[in-house]
Each structure stands twice: as C-alpha cells, then as structure tokens.
Amino acid sequence: MNIIQYYMYRMMRVPKTCCCLIIILLLCNSFAIAQNTTIKGFADLSVLYDKKLSFGFGEQDLFITSQLNDRFSFLGETVVKYDPSAETEFGVSIERLIVKYNYYGNHNILLGKVHTPLNYWNDTYHHGRVFYPTIDRPLIFKKEIIPLHTTGIDFQGQNLGDIRFGYDLMVGNGLGSPPVSDNDKYKSITTAVHIKPIDNMRIGASYYHDIVSKGAEVEGKTINWKVKQQLFTGSFAYFGKKFEVLAESTLALNKTDTTGVRQTFAPYIYAGYKITPKIIPYVRFDDVHYQEGEILFTKDNTTAFVLGLRYQVNYLAVLKLEYQHTDAELEGKQDMVTFQIAIGF
Amino acid sequence: MMGDFKIQCLLNKSAGLFKCLLCMMLLLSGMQVYSQTQTLTVISNEKGAPTELKLDELKSIFKGEKQRWRDGNKITIAMMKTNTPVGAYTCKKIYDMNGDEVKKFWLALVFQGKADGPQFFSSITELESFVVDNPGAIGIIDPSQSSANTHVVLVDGKKTL
After folding, report:
1. Which of A29, A46, A146, B47 is most buried when burial is the number of CB atoms within 10 A of its CB?
2. What percent of chain B has pLDDT above 90?
3. HEC sequence for A47-64
4. Contacts of B68 in chain A (CB under 8 A)
5. Which chain A residues touch B100 with a CB distance below 8 Å?
C-alpha cells in the first residue's frame, strides 16, 4: 500500500466514529423539544514543555441530560479521546450512562455506569476539564488506585437534614468486568457518606470492597491471583469565596493467599487562593506509596508537586498554567510546564 | 466696569457648572438608591410550594438542595436571566454570587447529575406564565412588573425580599 492509499484508507475509517456521534446529536435534537433535554460539550487544548515543546488536546466530551418525566431522568457522557491502539488513533468511550429515579424527597436510585462515588474528586469532577481546579486529576487516579467507573445500581440520598447529609450505597460489576456485564459472581460494594456543615464545605468518608478473580484483566494487566480489595477514603473539601482546600486520603488493602495484605497509601492536598474571583494561584501535593510485594497495582512509589495559576475567563472558559515536578520510582524525576485552555459549549 | 463684568461672567459660569455637578450627583445617587431598593417577590404555582418560607429555606431550594415539595410535586426553579437587572439582583440576594458564578454553579451541579438546572427567562411575563402552568414551579420576579394572578410566597412573613 503506498502513502496515498494509506491516507485514503485512514480517511474512510475516521467518519464512522463521527457519524455515530452526529446521529446521536441529531436524534437528541429532534427529541429536545418534546422533553427537557440539554446537550453540552467540553474540550481542552494544551501546550506542554517537557524537554521538548508539544501541542495537544484532551478528550472531547459530549454531555446530555434529559428529564424524561416527573421522576425519571437520564444522563449520558460520551468521550472521544486519543487511543493509539485504535485504527483511527481515536476511540469513543461511554463514560457515564445513568437513568435516575427520584422515588421520594431527596432519595434516588441510579442505574447504569457512574463515576464510583468513592471520593470528592471522582464524585464532583467528571470529564469536563473546565471544572477542574487543576489541569489534570490527582496521581491517585493516574495510578489507578481508585476505580473510576462502576456499572451497577446506586441508592443515593442528598442534602438530608440541617447538616445536609448525603449517602451512596452502590452494588456493581467490579474490577475486571467490562462495562456491560460482570466477569464473575463477585460484586463490588461502595458505601459513602458525607456532610455539608456549612456552605461550600463537604466532609466525607467511604469504603469499597471487591474481589478480583484470578485471570481477570484489570487496567490492561492480567491478574494471576484472586485478590480481595478494600479501599478506605477520607475527604475534606472547602471552596469558599477566598480560599480553596481539598484534601483526600485513600488506604488500599489488597489481599491474596500468597502475599497476605499489602497496603497502598495515597493522599493528596490541593490549596488555592482567589486573589480576585478570576485569578487563582494554587498548589497541589500528591503521594502514592506502595508496600513491597504489592500484587494488584504496579508498584511505583511517586510524589508530585504542582504549582499553578488559574484564570477564569467566564463560566465556560478557563486558562491554567502549571509547573509540575514528579519523582517516580520507575521513571525518575521529571519537570513539566503545561498551559491548558479548557472550555464548555 | 469691565472687571466687574468679567467677575460676573465667571460667577455665572461657576454657578452653571455647580448646578451641572449637583444634577449629576443627584442623578447618580438616584440610580444608587434605585438599585439599593430593588425588591424581589417569590411566586409559585398553586401546587407545590408552601404559602410561607424562611429565607434560608428559599436559598436552599434555589441552590438545588431540595428535589420535591412536601406534597410530592417536583421543584422547578424559574429565574430571570442573570444579565437582566432582576436576575442580577437575584444572584446577589439569593446566591451571594455574580451572574457568571451562578451559571458556573448550576452547570457544575447539572454535570454532576445532582440537580436539574433552573429555567431562565428574558421577561417577567414569560416567567410568570411558566410558573402558573407548571405544578411545583417557583420563581423570583420584580413585584412592580407582576400581574395580579400570581401566587405570592411570603418570605420571613414578608411579600418582598
């Protein structure tokens, strides 16, 4: 195949993904008048310097919500992102697909694929970078300590009582399962509670339990042992008029018959100060520490320090400039400067 | 004599300038007084909202913290667009935010799947019609522009905020 034939082949393959998205958009648009349907999009572009200058972009996020009737509502989040293993180098991923039923007061049942309600970050920030206080997620997500998504059923309550108590009790397919079925008989259990004692503050705790079957594929890795996993997370978040603080810690206990229990501890803390409502300098410190003999995660003790500046153009556009220093066991020390434009539309 | 004439002209010009400045000051303070005395009224559909609310309860409702009224009707929030005088004052009074911050607040909440966003309107008449037609709806308007048919909700015992 010569180079012209190669590019023609590539061009023929690209539209398939785009066609799917266009069809989804058209269908949604035609129904929008009949029910309260909102379609929004989010995207981000970046300039990165890490010993060389690179221009790039992140996920393009299509977000749809619809009020189906007085009690049922729908939320869908579909992302197109760079995937070097895909033929077109871009893959489409359904990140969230939720039908919610509000059965009484502030109590709901959610069915579908959700962001596992394990900590503040995962429960609050999804795939729209315009909402992130920093350019990217904390290390705990990049190291895949927290299961980002779970497909299952979630019993949820919000803003109950004077302290605005909230809860999630979720049963799901668990680690190693594809999004549309369970790979084994074991179910993941997530329990999370939080309170909002004053405006803009949230204090929470959660527990996650799952059993990973021998031979399961988890984040591209085949697990050759049966692993019992427990995650304990504590969170404190305050996003006020002047100060912003977000501190979370996760303790992961992974147990096999061979190694016993292996601990991984992953805290991070973020702090920002609003010089003006639009200009916010910030810092974040991340640490992920694994115990020797860790089986489920890839052992790579890492600390990272981020120093950044966020400029809020308006509620749909944010500029961020960050310096990040990372010290990782496997990759060594790394310094990076990133500029990001994150938008909503 | 010429000197007296010049002084008289100078005095006349100064008086004119002073009057002009005085008018401008009165006009500006008048505008300030208008925005400080801007009042809001809470209206609701006959079904849903109670006849009276406390201000804290109203703020909680407008921040999406309650999904349903006691009678089971779903709460639907109606607001004037944030770039209208009534909308801008509602943002300040209820949310303690500017219009852009309120829009960000709601976009984030809807994106989290935690609440349904408010309906925004360009005219009081449209907002009133929406509230009248939708059980469970609650809205905030300028009372001087409201029609007589709307159901007013007392806040802390008062008809206006």
Report:
1. A146
2. 71
3. EEECCCEEEEECCEEEEE
4. 102, 104-106
5. 314-315
